[in-house]
Amino acid sequence: MGCGVSKSAVVDDSREGVTRELASSSKRVSKRKGSALNSKKKIDGVRGKDEILDGADMKASLIDKKLDGSMRLCDDQNKEKKRERPELAVLDHPGTGRVPKGLEGEQVAAGWPTWLSAVAGEAIQGWIPRSANSFERFYKIGQGTYSTVYKARDVTHQKIVALKRVRFDKFDPESVKFMAREILVLRRLDHPNVLKLEGLITSQTSRNLYLIFEYMEHDLTGLAYSTKFSEPQVKCYMQQLLSGLDHCHSRGVLHRDIKGSNLLIDNNGILKIADFGLANFIDPHHNVPLTSRVVTLWYRPPELLLGASNYGVSVDLWSTGCILGELYCGRPILPGKTEVEQLHRIFKLCGSPSEDYWRKLRSPHSTVFRPPHHYRRCIAETFKEYPSASTRLIETLLSLDPTLRGTAATALKSEAILFIGTPCL
């Protein structure tokens, strides 16, 4: 299965790891910020009536195919220096990297703050920042621990957008790198079913950074709770989700937080995968252990609950199987309250793992979390009232063995997904 826990250092690329760093670094820099920052009455940022708050992890979105995000640097010198970014493996700190000093100077001259260009220049290479004065903020539409999202108007292009302000500590290089990794991931992706990053708002003197996205009216969770989906609608949404995931995986990106609230939908029924705050790069040729503290609990595969650190696209496919079941049932299919309860619910639905499963997993938690008695697999029985092709696909996607879940590309060929018709709404 390739998900045994390695003794090598696991890359703590989770939000929890960065949160710990934020907490400790905020104490370290509080004296440095002191009177210089506290004496400033005006908070730099986007114009609006409500004060910008720190926080959250909301799902924004923004896509205008006629625009290519932030304005491009286009002088001849920059054209000569512009190179294709190399495909990235997961390294000691996956995500972002420095650029040569000369390019760093160009970025600062273009308007980027030094705290960003100095440690994460690759994420912004070739772009220049948008000005906060060219946006009119309306109100907050979502907030969580790591970012806040606002509905706003792009005054320059006369359209409604969503602005995502990410929480980070500019005095901590690791915190900046973690934040910038989401930018780098988004810049690698370009697909109709993946939310496109249109630009960034900041300045040389700013301590804030906003990601600009297309405004999307709905998310899949909200629609699922208020609407009973027909079979064609389920096929339509699942086809778009798997198409977007196939693109992500083909570009070497794991999303690692697929759930209904991260799947945004516009009024035309177009679905886009959003919130890449937990995403990371993968390279099949570089087996680097990663954190298991990813994916929202109800959509987290058993190998992550058991502490696996070597995993791949199969974690996103498990989450997709949970989404498919949820679209038919109208509610989450594995709503555990704790990690132990979540594993128990998984084993009750998917059956007890075989001895071969535990042997391949090689997890130190295997003896602790083994179910007390044998459960038989009952997915077919649980979903018997729904289309048989969909039940078979759920069976595949919710395989306990990650190697049996297939790929997004193979799932797209399933009879449960094949759909030719009108938009989903």
Plain-language structure description:
The chain is an alpha+beta fold and 425 residues long. 36% of the residues lie in helices and 11% in strands. The strands form three sheets. The chain has a five-stranded antiparallel β-sheet, with no helix packed on it. Helix 4 (114-124) runs parallel beside helix 5 and helix 7 (231-250) runs antiparallel to helix 9 (314-329). The longest helix is centred in the N-terminal third of the chain and has 24 residues, at 15-38. The two termini are 39 Å apart.
What is the topological layout?
Layout: H1 15-38, H2 76-81, H3 101-109, H4 114-124, E1 135-143, E2 147-154, E3 159-166, H5 173-188, E4 199-201, E5 210-214, E6 218-219, H6 220-226, H7 231-250, E7 253-254, E8 263-265, E9 271-273, E10 280-281, H8 302-305, H9 314-329, H10 339-350, H11 355-361, H12 366-369, H13 379-382, H14 388-397, H15 408-411
Antiparallel strand pairs: 1-2, 2-3, 3-5, 4-5, 6-8, 7-10, 8-9
Helix pairs in contact: 3-4, 4-5, 7-9, 9-14
